[in-house]
Amino acid sequence: MIGTIATILAGCLILAGSAFAAIAAFGILRLPDLYTRMHAASKAGSVGSGMALLALALVSDTGPEALRAIAAIAFFLLTAPLSAHLLAKAAYAVGYRMWPGSVLDEMPAVIVTTARAETPARAQTVQSRSGEAAAPRPNQDD
Amino acid sequence: MTHSDFARQFLEICLDISLILLGIAFFLTVVRIIKGPTLPDRVLGLDMLTSVAIGFIAVIGIDTGFTLYVDIAIALGLVGFLATVAFARFILARGKTADDDERQDLRQIDGDPFASATETTSRTGAGR
Lengths: 142, 128
Description:
Chain A: It holds the Pfam family PhaG_MnhG_YufB. The complex is a heterodimer. Chain A is an all-alpha fold.
């Protein structure tokens, strides 16, 4: 009886997980901006694979397999936000612009440099581009 | 007995549907990697590809009983995380190239609701 319930629960979990993964991929394809795409990928994508691994832990026969799947879930939930945050920070610091329809830019004047002279600071790139850019960033004037 | 039979058939149907959905996710992510206008988009797509592959490994492990591949899933997650971190450091060190700048016209690639009224967009944005 317990096995039956676990099997049905595992079926529901892999359905939900793969649906999450498909929705995340659809969001990656359809959202307009790197940062919004990242919001789709790093949340829904990690939840999707985590649900599939949880279903594997439910239907596995022995204890160590289930423990390994749960360890994989924990590891994945730990690393996915880290990598997404690092990538977003790097892209924003280097100067990849947000979507023009974005409402709020909470770090409009941040300047992050790693190499002393090579990396262009964001403010400098915005200033140097402001002459030719058709649409300046919405919150740049604040 | 009938309950367990029903559960097994239900699991079979769920496995088929989820394999189809994961295949669609894989395809859409690959489309974004090919199309992706900038380097961070492609890095994000590769990260997503890793997580979809881990989901594939879990579903195939349920389907065929090869749970040996869960170890490979853990290793794949580690490699994907390290690759994304390394790519982020590389993007920081490289800066934004002129090649990206040409291709980064988001309005041209994905529709912009304010495309016809760019001035209005900037004014309302500054008003907030």
